[in-house]
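Design request, tokens follow.
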């Protein structure tokens, strides 16, 4: 006999191995917004419309939320470990103080998402859309993540501290990266057109192919002696 997934929510707040993907989204949204401190383990919420749901400081362990709509959702202080938010719509959601570890966020929409003290650790964020982030208190951290092909155009990233982040082919055009520090990061093919890089420390970054346009693109950034030598060679200068 098949267990009613909504009945499992009524028995919460700890729910394990429940498939909610076919449940009534309004009923699921109402149940999850009842103020309980939810712990969802290996639950499937694929493609549900949970826009505006208030999960507060919930814990989601290896849950599947692929293509789930979470527009305007509140996950303030939430812990998300493993699982998938691939292609999920988190536009205008509140992820303040949330910690996401090992989560697949490929092609997820985080347009206008509140990212105050949010931490992304070892997440797959290939092609994620982070344009239009709220300029107030955008103080999140990204460590060990892949942001290849991600969209970060015009993003307010001043003072960012990035470690082991792959930004290959990402769109950072017009972004504010002043005073940012990039350690063991990849900038191969990254679009930095019109980005503000004054004081940005790129000494620990892989700058990819150096071209005659590189000096203008990196104007104001801090680079190592070896990187500076590569730039000079690209300009046809002899370094001795």
């Amino acid at each position: 006999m098949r267990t009613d997934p909504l009945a499992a929510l009524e028995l919460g707040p700890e729910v394990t191995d429940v498939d909610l993907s076919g449940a009534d989204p309004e009923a699921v949204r109402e149940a999850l917004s009842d103020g309980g401190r939810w712990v969802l383990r290996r639950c499937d919420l694929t493609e549900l419309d949970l826009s505006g749901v208030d999960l507060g400081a919930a814990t989601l362990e290896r849950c599947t939320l692929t293509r789930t709509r979470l527009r305007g959702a509140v996950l303030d202080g939430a812990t998300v470990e493993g699982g998938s938010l691939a292609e999920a719509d988190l536009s205008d959601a509140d992820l303040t103080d949330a910690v996401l570890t090992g989560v697949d966020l490929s092609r997820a929409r985080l347009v206008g998402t509140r990212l105050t003290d949010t931490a992304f650790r070892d997440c797959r964020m290939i092609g994620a859309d982070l344009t239009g982030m709220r300029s107030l208190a955008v103080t999140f951290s990204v460590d060990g993540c892949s942001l290849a092909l991600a969209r970060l155009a015009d993003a307010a990233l001043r003072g960012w501290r990035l470690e082991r982040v792959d930004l290959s082919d990402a769109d950072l055009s017009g972004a504010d990266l002043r005073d940012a520090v990039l350690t063991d990061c990849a900038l191969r093919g990254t679009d930095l057109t019109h980005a503000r890089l004054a004081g940005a420390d790129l000494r620990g970054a892989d700058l990819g192919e150096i071209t005659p346009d590189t000096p203008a693109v990196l104007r104001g950034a801090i680079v190592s002696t070896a990187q500076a030598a590569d730039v000079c060679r690209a300009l046809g200068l002899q370094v001795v």
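Comment from the thread starter after seeing the answer: thanks! The beta strands are 14-16, 39-41, 59-61, 79-81, 99-101, 119-121, 141-143, 161-163, 181-186, 201-206.
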